[in-house]
Amino acid sequence: MGAGHDGAARELARRVEVAGGTARIVDLLSAVPRPVAAAWRHGYRMQLRLAPESYERSYQLYYRESRNWDRTLRVMCAMTRRTIARWVDETAADVVVSTYALGTLILGSLRETSILQVPTINFLTDFGVHPRTVHRGIDLHLAVHEVAAADARRLVDAPVFATGPAVSPRFVASASAREQARTMLGIPPDNRVVVVAAGSWGVGGDLAGTIEHLADDSRFDVIALCGHDRRLARRLRAGRVRRVYGWTDQMPALFAAADAVVENAGGLTAFEACASGAALVSFRPIPGHGRDNVRAMVRAGVTAAPETLSLLVRELDTITVAGPARTDRLEAGRAMFSGDPAEHILALPAR
To answer: Which residue of 95, 96, 197, 341 shows the fewest CB atoms closer than 10 Å?
Structure first.
């Protein structure tokens, strides 16, 4: 349902295995009939692309208890419980971890009704904590920041710890990484580099217009990350944007080269930018979880959320040069990485 959930799962599994454990990653949607999974995934993507405000209304609707949502969850539990039980049995699992809200709700429901006997952990991949991203049946919740952890504690009685995001060690903030990345990309050391990240799907409000506007500003050297959106990449390459990337494995280098990263969802991309030592700015966040994420991140001092293009340019002009605003933003980003979620995952079965 999104690269951020997959990325968090991969990094958590890597850390567990480095610590001597064994991990298996499974896709929850592979536990339901293929037509259902395809419809769910495609419908979500098209809703964000074609009718984003309808997604916002749905997202807000489920802040409240709903019989429709309860029925949907019961159906999803019925469809997935046998496969989940098989996965647990095949691996002799000591703990099950969710990095996706629907998985959390299903696992919590199965755990609450004693269908699932194995301890469960909810790894909250986002800053914004929606009531449907936690469940009272889950044994332990892990959050990316104390702001998110505090919000989660208002919704559940189970322990909640702020451990920081699960970001690959390939994303690192250092002078040598910055120099090496800029040399590889052919970027002069004094250029003010702004990376605009469109997410894995290229969803957002007038992304092309935003990127072109920044590229026209001589103060900034703009790098556009278009994800899987080939149409967006073609338009930008045909215009005035010099550095345009589709889905790429060069993200660590691109972020290491950046002075600032502009994003619109507040997910894994934002955390990777912070880990790389780039100052974060959120602009025109996507509906639903994107807007919730950005509001919480602003509260934490991790990002700023200018509302217009002119204010975005002003913000970038400030945080791409040395000064108090840039220092504060970078320090807030570094402070997120306060612990290791894998330590809690490995410790839970022994509690």
So the answer is: 95
